[in-house]
Amino acid sequence: MKLSLSFALRIRNLAAPFTPLGATLSMENNNHHHHHHQRRTTNSGVESSPGVQKLQQLVKTNSSAGWEESWKQGVTPWDLGRPTPVVLHLRDTGSLPMGRALVPGCGTGYDVVAMACPGRYAVGLDISEEGIKKAKQMSSSSPNADYFTFLKEDFFSWCPTDLFDLIFDYTFFCAIEPDMRSAWAQQIQNLLKPDGELITLMFPMDDHAGGPPYKVAVEDYEEVLHPMGFKAISIVDNELAIEARKGREKLGRWKRAVGNSSL
Ligand SMILES: C[S@@+](CC[C@H](N)C(=O)[O-])C[C@H]1O[C@@H](n2cnc3c(N)ncnc32)[C@H](O)[C@@H]1O
């Protein structure tokens, strides 16, 4: 039952990663009528999105300058314009750890603001000055303003004084070069308290070549997180994914096994 449902969603979901919702829906309709379902396993979906193509050109040469340039040019095809629905769900059902929360590669930072509350101080990190500027503008009149901050920092070299109870990664893991994934896991370990929780919204779980966004699989996370002592507590399909990403997202929750022993 579950398999066939997710298969149906995947078949309907032919659009490029990061394609804005509107564009995706019309592409889906188009593909439906013309039966171009085989597109999904090729690279043509990615190539056919001008925003993603432009992003890849910009980030290709020098990633840090490339991200800055994409923010300056408004090439932000990943941006939902609102908090991620599953983050709101986790927050509202009390399933987000309290304490200090970090969102690396936070972009406009809707999720940072959504997580912030008196019991949870949220830090949004982005390497792009322009991105951080957008985040501060977006959030300037938030009633939660005392409970979050945005910092322009390179995630890989950042060394804060206080560790985190929660790190939430969405579309950051897929944005970095795949050869940086071990360093990503090492830094997650450095920044998280021993009993802290890592939540990964894994996307895009598909089969395209190139990036960003680079394709991801659960095994890609396991490969770098297991050596750091992290184990998945749960991995589930994200049924709250936005339409354009349905069937290509899983929510993973990870904790370190070390130090939890009561033997
Ligand atoms: C695909 S966007 C995702 C933004 C946000 N998570 C969202 O879902 O809207 C990736 C973001 O990571 C940022 N980024 C890339 N490399 C970074 C690094 N080394 N440290 C911090 N941020 C980085 C980029 O500037 C960009 O804003």
Would you kindly provide a brief summary of this structure?
With 263 residues, this protein is α/β, with parallel strands linked by helices.
Main β-sheet, in a few words? Answer: 7 strands, mixed
| Radius of gyration over all CA atoms, rounded | 18 Å
Q: Unreliable runs, pLDDT <50, ≥5 residues? A: 1-15, 20-45
* Ligand species: S-adenosylmethionine
Count of runs of 4 or more consecutive helical residues = 10
Shape, principal axes of CA atoms: globular
Q: How would you describe this protein?
A:
This protein has helices spanning 2-12, 21-34, 44-47, 50-61, 63-72, 85-92, 110-115, 129-139, 181-191, 218-225; strands at 99-104, 120-126, 148-152, 164-170, 192-202, 230-237, 250-256. By secondary structure, it is α/β, with parallel strands linked by helices. The longest helix is centred in the first third of the chain and has 14 residues, at 21-34. Helix 4 runs antiparallel to helix 5 (63-72) and helix 9 (181-191) crosses helix 10 (218-225). The termini are far apart. A seven-stranded mixed β-sheet has the order 3-2-1-4-5-7-6, with helices on both faces. Helix 8 (129-139) links the parallel strand 2 (120-126) and strand 3. It has ten helices and seven strands. The site of S-adenosylmethionine has 21 residues, from strand 2. S-adenosylmethionine is lined by residues 67, 78-79, 104-108, 125-128, 131, 154-156, 170-172, 175-176. Pfam families: TPMT (PF05724). Keywords: Methyltransferase, Phosphoprotein, S-adenosyl-L-methionine, Transferase. InterPro entries: SAM-dependent_MTases_sf, TPMT.
